[in-house]
Amino acid sequence: MYVLRLLGVALIGMLAAPSQAAERGSAAAIAAPRTARRAPIITEAELTTRLRSHKGRPVILHFWATWCPSCLAELPLLAKLAEDVRGKGVAFLAVSVDAATRQSAERVGAVLAERAGSSDWSAILKSPDAFAFIKSLARRWRGELPVFLGFDRRSRLVGVHIGDITQRELEELLGVLLRKN
Questions:
Q1: How many domains are there within the chain?
Q2: Which residues contact 117 (CB under 8 A, 6 or more apart)?
Q3: In the list 42, 60, 119, 131, which could disulfide-bond 109, CB 3.0-4.6 Å?
Q4: Helix (H, G, I), strand (E, B) or coil at 142
């Protein structure tokens, strides 16, 4: 897992604009736009409370990370989806598994501002073991990111999508959520 995270950090460095990286003196630096705010950091208990607060309403819970190239690529699509599903009565919660540090919160905020249009779009999970927490929600999950968990109106897990997702696959997950009672 440590090696995968290091590879993810290296890939983020390659995604940073060359002028930004040169200005910072680091290939892994991502400059935060002046309008970007730090992403909020939430605990497992706070996330669980947020999930429970939507009881009576379907929820799509999305876990991602800035060191995950496919997670970054799909952020614009997901920002649009989040707006679309709210109009259909479905909550969309995005949670980063980046380190719960001030530096990561700044980086996540900058990435969100650039790719999703708002630095407030996702929180960072503060957890002793974020991957164990996700596994507690979805037993069949094996550590891949991104992952989408669909909860019905009774807060039961009824859909899981692991890995890259297309618009059609998102619509299918949404359809499952809206059909479940």
A1: 2
A2: 76, 79
A3: 119
A4: coil
Q: Which two tokens stand for residue 29?
A: 């630096």
Q: Do the Cβ atoms of 65 and 7 come closer than 8 Å?
A: no
**In which band, very low, low, confident or very high, does the pLDDT at 181 lie, cut at 50, 70 and 90?**
low
91 contacts: CB under 8 Å, gap ≥ 6:
54, 57, 58, 59, 60, 85
For the four alpha carbons of 38, 43, 48 and 49, in that order, the dihedral sign comes to: negative
| Predicted local distance difference test score (pLDDT) of residue 76 | 92
72-95: per-residue pLDDT in tens? Answer: 999 998 888 888 888 888 999 999
Residue 22 shares a structural domain with residue 62: no
Strands (E), the chain: 41-43, 59-64, 91-96, 123-126, 147-151, 157-162
Same domain, 104 and 129: yes
Q: Is the pLDDT reported for residue 21 higher than 50?
A: no
- Same domain, residue pair 135 and 161: yes
Which of these, 70, 60, 55, lies nearest to 160 by C-alpha position?
A: 60
Specify the CATH number for the domain of residue 158. 3.40.30.10
Q: CA-CA distances (angstroms) from residue 168 to 152, 164, 165, 172, 173? A: 19, 12, 8, 6, 9
